[in-house]
TrEMBL record:
Pfam families: DnaJ, TPR_1, TPR_8. One of its GO terms (molecular function) is misfolded protein binding. The lineage of its organism: Eukaryota, Metazoa, Ecdysozoa, Nematoda, Chromadorea. GO terms for cellular component: endoplasmic reticulum. InterPro entries: DnaJ_C3_Co-chaperones, DnaJ_domain, J_dom_sf, TPR-like_helical_dom_sf, TPR_rpt. It comes from the Eukaryota. Its main location: endoplasmic reticulum. One of its GO terms (biological process) is protein folding in endoplasmic reticulum. Residues 268-301 form a coiled coil. TPR repeats lie at residues 19-52, 133-166, 252-285. Gene3D superfamilies: DnaJ domain, Tetratricopeptide repeat domain. SMART domains: DnaJ, TPR. This is J domain-containing protein. Signal peptide: none annotated.
Amino acid sequence: MHKSRQHSQCVQVVAADTAQARVQRGSVLLKQGEIDSAENDFHAVLRVEPSNSEVSGKLDLIADLRQYIHQAKSFYDRQDLVSSEYYLNKALEHLVWDPSLYRLRAKCLESRGEIRKAIADMRTLTKLVADSTDDFLKISHLYYGIGDVEESLSQIRECLKLNPDHKECFPFYKKVKKLAKMRESLNDAKQREDWMACLEKGQQILKYESKVLDIQMDTFRQLCKCNMEAGHIAEAIQQCTEVLTNSDPNDVDVLCDRAEAYILDERYDEAIEDYQKAQKINEESRRAREGLDKAQKLKKQAGKRDYYKILGLKRNASKRDITKAYRKMAQKWHPDNFNDAAEKKKAEQKFIDIAAAKEVLSDDEKRAQFDQGIDPLDPEAQQGHTHFHHGFPGGFMFREGGGPFSFKFNF
């Protein structure tokens, strides 16, 4: 009798241990999406422990999960992607290791344009399947489609690590690697401030990849800056506008780049508008704040003496351009060229303005002040600085005798 009781107790212990092991295995299978196998384990436990409420709850959950998956697939087939994603989210709260659900949700997200979220699901997927070669290829294509060429290259390399002879991975790898090298050359030219090389590399990229909008827009973003620095104002404005219209209307850097180009084109109202928008998007942007202040001062200054206009120059003129324009204008408006008293008087004032323009624009410090909207020769705008006393730079002498003014070239 005693031995029989001991044997019975041992059987109960073994049964309990077996039941607990099956609960644990069933729970893992459920997380993996193996619903049928998990259900078999839970039913086996209930045959031994009919009152096990934990297992009964898991069987009720399985019924709900089957319904979620059915609804998700049904809505996906009807192209109701939002509803499909809703049920996939509910299922994935419990089936956290089910690769098929991540794959289906990634398809929903991709179709809805949520590419980075789709990529996140695909990357999770690669950790859950034995062979993720094709999944890395898909991830690489997704990154490429949103213009992230460098990350696309990284992912396609993962594909080749798993299968160096993959018939799709290797050709795509060569394509992405070539584009990545071209983009690196563009960035190097930009860093060196070699603006013409920057423009050349940018055009090569646009020609090489003419179909992927995000790659084109990123290239336009770079070319906007390079064209502006190269003095191609119209092209800079056009390319910045392309980015703001077709990619990101809230790109603070591009808004500021276009605003700078507008300033060079003396379109101060448009520059102010872009800087204000940039500042609204990012209140901490120093570039937007200082740019707005500069544009407002330049607009106010526009009604006053404009040294660039006096010499017929754009704001990005070189020192050589300034000297050349100064000599040309000084010769044209030399008062000795005019006999009529009224015309001579007008020429004298023009000559003074031309000399003032040369003084300001040939001096880096004074030119920088003027470019910030401050006239270094205006006593009201400039206090505590040396003012213009009608000296004539470049060898021009302005002498007053007892009669009319006399001027002498003295190069």
